[in-house]
Amino acid sequence: MGIFSDLDKKLTDNLYEHGSQLTDPSADLPRRVKERVDLLMPFIQPEAREAVRLQILGIIHEHILDETEIGPGEPAAKE
What we know:
Layout: H1 2-23, H2 31-40, H3 49-63, H4 67-70
Protein backbone atom coordinates (compact mmCIF):
# COMPACT_ATOMS: atom_id res chain seq x y z
CA MET A 1 0.00 0.00 0.00
CA GLY A 2 2.93 2.34 0.65
CA ILE A 3 4.00 2.27 -3.00
CA PHE A 4 0.57 3.37 -4.17
CA SER A 5 0.41 6.14 -1.58
CA ASP A 6 3.78 7.48 -2.69
CA LEU A 7 2.78 7.28 -6.34
CA ASP A 8 -0.53 9.01 -5.64
CA LYS A 9 1.23 11.82 -3.79
CA LYS A 10 3.75 12.31 -6.61
CA LEU A 11 1.02 12.34 -9.25
CA THR A 12 -1.10 14.76 -7.22
CA ASP A 13 1.83 17.12 -6.67
CA ASN A 14 2.70 16.99 -10.36
CA LEU A 15 -0.90 17.68 -11.36
CA TYR A 16 -1.10 20.69 -9.06
CA GLU A 17 2.21 22.01 -10.38
CA HIS A 18 1.53 21.49 -14.10
CA GLY A 19 -2.25 21.04 -14.26
CA SER A 20 -2.95 24.45 -15.77
CA GLN A 21 -0.99 23.41 -18.85
CA LEU A 22 -3.52 20.62 -19.37
CA THR A 23 -6.61 22.80 -18.95
CA ASP A 24 -5.45 26.28 -20.00
CA PRO A 25 -4.59 26.52 -23.69
CA SER A 26 -2.71 29.76 -23.12
CA ALA A 27 -0.49 28.48 -20.30
CA ASP A 28 2.64 28.33 -22.44
CA LEU A 29 1.84 31.05 -24.98
CA PRO A 30 3.83 34.29 -24.97
CA ARG A 31 2.24 37.16 -23.03
CA ARG A 32 2.08 39.21 -26.23
CA VAL A 33 -0.22 36.65 -27.87
CA LYS A 34 -2.62 36.76 -24.92
CA GLU A 35 -2.65 40.57 -25.00
CA ARG A 36 -3.47 40.59 -28.73
CA VAL A 37 -6.34 38.15 -28.24
CA ASP A 38 -7.66 40.30 -25.38
CA LEU A 39 -7.72 43.28 -27.78
CA LEU A 40 -10.30 41.40 -29.87
CA MET A 41 -12.72 40.87 -26.99
CA PRO A 42 -14.61 44.20 -27.30
CA PHE A 43 -15.89 42.91 -30.66
CA ILE A 44 -17.37 39.76 -29.07
CA GLN A 45 -20.68 39.56 -27.25
CA PRO A 46 -20.00 39.85 -23.50
CA GLU A 47 -21.55 36.50 -22.59
CA ALA A 48 -19.42 34.68 -25.19
CA ARG A 49 -16.06 36.38 -24.56
CA GLU A 50 -14.48 33.77 -22.31
CA ALA A 51 -15.49 30.87 -24.56
CA VAL A 52 -14.26 32.67 -27.69
CA ARG A 53 -11.02 33.69 -25.96
CA LEU A 54 -10.32 30.08 -24.95
CA GLN A 55 -11.11 28.83 -28.46
CA ILE A 56 -8.78 31.36 -30.10
CA LEU A 57 -5.97 30.64 -27.66
CA GLY A 58 -6.49 26.91 -28.17
CA ILE A 59 -6.22 27.27 -31.94
CA ILE A 60 -3.08 29.40 -31.63
CA HIS A 61 -1.58 26.93 -29.15
CA GLU A 62 -2.27 24.06 -31.54
CA HIS A 63 -0.80 25.77 -34.60
CA ILE A 64 1.87 28.12 -33.20
CA LEU A 65 5.24 28.10 -34.95
CA ASP A 66 8.17 26.94 -32.88
CA GLU A 67 11.27 29.12 -32.78
CA THR A 68 13.11 26.22 -34.43
CA GLU A 69 10.74 26.43 -37.41
CA ILE A 70 11.05 30.18 -37.97
CA GLY A 71 14.47 30.93 -36.52
CA PRO A 72 15.30 33.19 -33.56
CA GLY A 73 15.90 36.26 -35.75
CA GLU A 74 12.41 36.36 -37.23
CA PRO A 75 9.94 38.98 -35.91
CA ALA A 76 7.38 36.27 -35.06
CA ALA A 77 9.88 34.70 -32.66
CA LYS A 78 10.19 37.82 -30.52
CA GLU A 79 7.97 38.27 -27.50
